[in-house]
Amino acid sequence: MSKLKQAIINNKFFAIVLLAYIGVSIFMPDKSVQSLQNSLYYVKEMLMIMPVILLLTSLITAWVPRKTIENNFGKDSGFKGSIFSFLLGSFSAGPIYAAFPVCKALLAKGAGISNIVIILSTWAVIKVPMLLNEAKFLSPKFMIIRWILTTISIFIIGYITSKLVKIEDIPKGDIDIDSGEDKLYINQEYCIGCGLCAKIALNHFEIANKKASVINQDIKEDEMITINEAIERCPVKVIKYTN
Q1: How many domains does the chain divide into?
Q2: How many Å apart are CA 104 and CA 100, to the nearest integer?
Q3: How many CB atoms lie within 10 A of CB 220?
Q4: Proportion of the chain above pLDDT 70, given as a percent
Q5: How many CB atoms lie within 10 A of CB 133?
Q6: Half-sphere exposure of 166 (CA within 13 A, CB side)
């Protein structure tokens, strides 16, 4: 019973959804089949889209240099960053939930809060294919006026959000936040547990539960050679050292 209770606690959202389905089946049996079909449709859609999105986020994490993201999407990227974010969201494909892991990966690489808001907002309401359909069904004039007003609102919301939400408010387990101190860090979400880092620098890394973790932040000057080797040889580039 304790294992079942712990499983429910660890999967609270799933348990709530399951209870909702049971309730619908009992009190509205005629709606239960329709609700299940709708859910299966979205599950199928997610299974088709999310693997591609997760691959994209892995590529961003592994191959795109942090400096590149900071220069083009960071908080100090200025107007250029806002425009790049607007274009990224406008020409992206897929439903809005596909944007969340992409934005999370960009945040982890140094993107600014305001630019993340711009990406999410344009992804949701200003995608180019959607604009073409809007012009077709509601007239080009309607589309242009709505586009202008929505764009202005997006930039304002991005600015306000960046003032109210700081990078420190994002869970530290998900986003690499530079504390200003020497820090050895592994993004465990994307770690594949190959064990190379533990073999190269066994005094600073270990493999536990098929993931690498840092066991010693005290790095002597003569140990930086092995630390740098571990960083360079990591196949998915999830090890970072900030000074």
Answers
A1: 2
A2: 6
A3: 8
A4: 90
A5: 11
A6: 3
Q: Are 89 and 106 in contact (CB under 8 A)?
A: no
Q: Tell me: the pLDDT tens digits for 207-216?
A: 988 899 999 8
Quick check: 174 and 108 in contact, CB under 8 A?
A: yes
- What's residue 184's pLDDT? 87
Q: How far apart are CA 127 and CA 98, in angstroms?
A: 14
Number of helices and strands in the chain (H, E): 11, 4
Q: Which domain covers residue 114, as residue numbers?
A: 61-169
Q: Tell me, yes or no, whether 157 lies in a domain.
A: yes
Whether residue 200 contacts residue 226, with contact meaning beta carbons closer than 8 Å, is answered with yes
pLDDT tens sequence across 162-191:
999 987 777 655 455 444 444 788 887 778
CATH number at residue 208: 3.30.70.20
pLDDT over 80 at 7, yes or no:
no
Residue 131 corresponds to which amino acid? L
